[in-house]
Amino acid sequence: MRGLLATALTAVFLCAPAIAEPAPDGCKKRMEVLENLISNWNENTVALGLGHNGTIVELTKTPDGATFTILMTWPDGRSCAVAAGEFWQSLKSPKKGKPL
Hints:
alpha+beta, flat, 100 residues, single chain, 2 helices
């Protein structure tokens, strides 16, 4: 299970920086997207990072991990969901040099 999860997450994060620009009709202002995730899905931001292409990559999830969403936000404030799913599992950091 861990190997499959790690492979899926690696694919999402390796592909995300290759996205040059979001589709305009699938994106909204970041606060609109987050308000929707909070009110309709009970998801809140739990992690974020800066992508190589200048985007912010953000993970939202429910407290129990039942649903999650990965967002990319461009410098102009547009946010797009690049992945969403169920059963998010937070893992402990592996020991140095050990795979998940």
